[in-house]
Amino acid sequence: xxxxxxxxxxxxxxxxxxxxxxxxxxxxxxxxxxxxxxxxxxxxxxxxxxxxxxxxxxxxxxxxxxxxxxxxxxxxxxxxxxxxxxxxxxxxxxxxxxxxxxxxxxxxxxxxx
Length: 113
Fold this sequence. Notes:
- By secondary structure, this protein is mainly α.
- The protein has two domains: 6-46; 60-107, no CATH class.
- The chain is built from six helices and no strands.
- It is elongated, with a radius of gyration of 23 Å.
């Protein structure tokens, strides 16, 4: 699910500040009552209603893959995804799936050969 736009958040808060009835805001801007409450609470506590970061641990493998995968691919240009996984584990000491290797390659702009 995507976060609401900054413009919509601003419209909701302006409407609340102007004294518009909550039901009218719900009907006009198509946001829920709980969303309005959340925006008001966030503005009160932080002074802003920017989307919050998605919680979770940062990827350990992602940065390592983007750093070292280019040299691995250049050293082994004919290797399959499974072979790249085996090479990665042997050289970096970290297991990765073929799907992870594929996503990293696509993120770096590489097309399937």
